Amino acid sequence: MIRSYLKTVRASLLGIALTLPVAAHATTYKWITFKPQGAGDAQAISTQWFVDEFKKRTGGKDDIQVFWGGSVAKTGEIPDSLAAGVGDFGDIITPYFPDKFPLNNAVGFFIPQPNSTLKIAELMEEWHKKYPQFDAELARYNLKAIGYRPLEDYGLLCTKPVKSVSDLKGLRIRSYGFAYPALIEALGATPVSINTAEAYEALERSIIDCTPIGPALARGWKYDEVAKYYIEMPLGASFGHLIAMNLDSYNGLDDATKAVVDKLGEDYAVEYSKLLDEDTAKVLEMWKGELGVTVMPFPRDELAKVVEDPRVQAVRKQWIDRATAEGVPAEEIVDELKF
């Protein structure tokens, strides 16, 4: 009788247990980045914003641990590390990998171009939705773009005043990527290939006279300590960084979490652009004050004439030909990037 009673109790308890809600398994995803945590700029702050929003929007079920400052993968290692599953999220400096991501580097072939930081992010979102080749290019490396981080509107930071194209003749200007070497030559200047970390010393020692950059980045790298003229040459926003996921990690998300990530990617561009605008405004005020940087206008019509130079047009055609070979209707994209 006692055994029968115990069996009944066990059966009842089992039945109750089966009807209780089972707590969902919490997951901690990994974000690998080259950015230092304490950088305090729009890139670092917006990364933390994404992480905080992800936890909030998943109801605290999931979170992301950030491995800052290249502690897991250096800048040049992030695409391969992310593809291999070392991280689930990561930020990729797209122009550093032109052979891997030519389609996703479209903007880099069209400098100058007329669009702002936020507009370039919106265009990248649109192109990924409209043209599957953009996603397919990343999928070859087991990557998925979930957000976009264009850089700010660029001008020229110089060690001497520049008022027109004629003032650029013979100057040495830092160059990189696709469009800048041809554009600098078309302006009558000499392109000099120097990486970001070496540009401060190059400006200080007069190895170069100018570098393309925006105010926030110029302050971040402290170039404005050694170059005191910012030329508002309307080069447009540069691209920039992909916020990417390991494709297997993305495909492994449940539908609800995937929806959170997709929406966060869209919201990220707005938040990042707002932070970047705030940074730029602060820097411009500092330039007026203790930093003593003179901001100078540059005639847009003179730059527009330079865009017609055969060297500049040849670079643009490189991208058009490659995109066309991939089946992308390139002219539709080019229309958005015409200066």
Automatic annotation (TrEMBL):
What keyword terms does UniProt attach to this protein?
Answer: Signal
Give the signal peptide, or none: 1-26
What InterPro entries does the annotation carry? Answer: DctP_fam, TRAP_DctP_sf
Pfam families documented for this protein: DctP
Q: Which CDD domains match?
A: PBP2_TRAP_DctP_like_1
Has keyword Transport? Answer: no
PANTHER family per the record? BLL6794 PROTEIN, PTHR33376
Protein name stated in the entry: C4-dicarboxylate TRAP transporter substrate-binding protein
Source lineage: Bacteria, Pseudomonadati, Pseudomonadota, Alphaproteobacteria, Hyphomicrobiales
